[in-house]
Structures are given as C-alpha cells and as structure tokens.
Amino acid sequence: MTPLAKLLEAALFASARPIPTDDLLGLDADASPAGVAAALDELREQYDTGGHGVELMQVGGGWQILTRPEYTEAIERAQLAARPQRLSGAALEALAIIAYRQPIGRAEIEEIRGVGAGAILKSLQERGLIDVVGRGEGVGRPLLYGTTPLFLEYFALRHLDELPRADELAVALRQVPQAS
Q: Using CB atoms within 10 A of its CB, is residue 151 exposed (0-12), middle (13-18) or buried (19+)?
C-alpha cells in the first residue's frame, strides 16, 4: 500500500464523520487530486479483496470507513456501536416530503401531511437533518427547507439522486403485507 493510501486510511479511521475529498487532499502538501483518487481506489480495492469487515464508502459528500452491511446487525445486537436516535413515523414522513420536494415551505408540508409540522421541523432541524435553504416568494416570504449533508450520511447516500424514484416506491409499498 502506498504511503498516501496509508495516510488516508489513518485519517478516515480516526474520523467519525465522512471526510470530503478536498480535506483529504490537504493531508499531504505533495498530493494531487488524481493521487488522492488513486489512493482512495487502492484503499477501496484493499478492503474489497482482502476479506475485511469494513469497506470504504463515499457518503454524504465525503469518504468514510464503514462496517459491511452483513455485520451491522450482529454489532447492533451486541450494542457495540452507537446507534443514532430513531426517527418517529411522523418525522420520517416530513423528512421524505422535504427530501423529494425541496426546497419546500412549512405550509406545503402541512398541506401534504394534513397536520401541523412545526414541532417536527424543529426536531429535524435540531438533529441537523434539515436546514433553512432560502425564502419563498409568497406572502411573508416563508422559510424554505432542504436536507443537509448529515441527512445523506444518516441514510448512507452519496447524493439525492440515490433516493428511490416515485415509481420504485409505489412498487415497494404494494409489496408490503398489510396487518390484519
């Protein structure tokens, strides 16, 4: 393994959050963007072919070493990993609306959900999953909400294009057995 790949591995291992490529580039003054990309490829290949329990993933606008999915359940069962606090059904619903319709205002979210969304929006904002991304053109110039890089990290997405398409969701929801 090259010295640059080892340096990147050490930085990624030490970080609890994804590290953007530009920050990785800053670790070595002599490193070029192509050199960092090659070192990341080398590191990913090392994990993929070496039978490791972790993998290098591009998540939430950066790179992170993560547990392979096949080991996640056992680690959670043993309570060895810090689990993020679960989101309620209402919070997931509001978050999905924001993710698919952003930028979107509170009134539109409430219209879609049919109930008030103030407390949920505040909770999602406190958790760092959404943020104010602008102001609307309507009366009072309402705040518009959008998702954050932490949202991408939370759901292990590289970018919003990885969200399921509406037609994929319709198929998945039809396949869910209904409780009697």
A: buried
Each residue of 127-157: pLDDT tens digit? 999 999 999 998 889 999 999 998 988 888 8
What is the token pair recorded at 70?
A: 């096949």
> β-strand 104-105 against 143-147: which pairing, if any?
antiparallel
- HSE-up of 176 (CA within 13 Å, CB side)? 8
C-alpha pair distances (Å), 146 with each of 59, 100, 135, 137, 177: 18, 9, 11, 16, 32
Do 37 and 5 form a contact (C-beta atoms < 8 A)?
no
- Cα–Cα distance measured from residue 35 to residue 32, given in angstroms and rounded to the nearest whole number: 5
Pairing of strands 130-135, 62-67: unpaired
Band of pLDDT at residue 175, cut at 50, 70 and 90: low
CA separation, residue 100 to residues 23, 24, 63, 131 (Å)? 29, 31, 24, 15
- Report the Cα 97 to chain-centroid distance in Å: 16
* pTM (2 d.p.): 0.57
User: From the centroid of its chain, how far is CA 106?
Assistant: 22
Res 180 pLDDT > 50: no
- Once rounded to an integer, what is the mean pLDDT over residues 85-114? 91
Length of the chain: 180
